[in-house]
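Batch manifest, entry 17 of 40.
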Amino acid sequence: MARKPKLVLAWDKSTHTPEDDALLCKLLREVDMLKLGLRAMNAEDADCRTIASIVRRRIWNGGFRAGVFWDAKLDDIEQTVVQALKHISYEHCRMVTLHATISNSAMRAAVAACKGRGLLPVAVTVLTDLSQAECYSRFGNVPNIAVLNFARMVKANGIKAITCSAQELAYLRPIGVLDGMVTVVPGIQAAWSKHTDQKRTVTPAQAVALGADYLVVGRSILDPPDGMTPVEAARKIRSEMNAALAS
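Output type: structure tokens
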């Protein structure tokens, strides 16, 4: 594997209490990147500070240099996407998501808006809570083909990173469409973790074996089984990733 896969913590919390803050600080020592989704983006602490200000204080000032994955899932017209990206590209932000369903011109404009800012635009293909039938009803294809079509399209428009289930990677890599592209894989669910609403899931070891570059893990860490702390869960997942990489 050309790159060592990275562990990304999906901080999907609607609140930011002192307890949340303490947990976040501990978990940042165990992961490579922090993903902030729509729930976290709308969260505030007791002083009405937004997650952006909390991130600046806790991550950049605290020495966490790996940065933030801003999971905004932008899905709008070109001008709106570009203006949003101008506000997103602050110093600690490294990746940002936009939907692969936006126009070609919006994709190209997004690439231009991110250029030179250390910000990687990542195209969201087929969400991992969609079943085969649901994917077909929306995109006219099963996930493998839908993701293939999205990957080809975004790559042609200059985007060099996609999110998809690791289940699609085994199909896409032999075709060569992922050559030169970064793969961000959500729907990572440890075998020992609680059941979630994700449908196309894989374990951390499976994702590594399939060549995922970034493994996005949320509830397996933040809501571990009884008797296991979030820090212990993060370490266990890291251990499974390392073992898969060595095998």
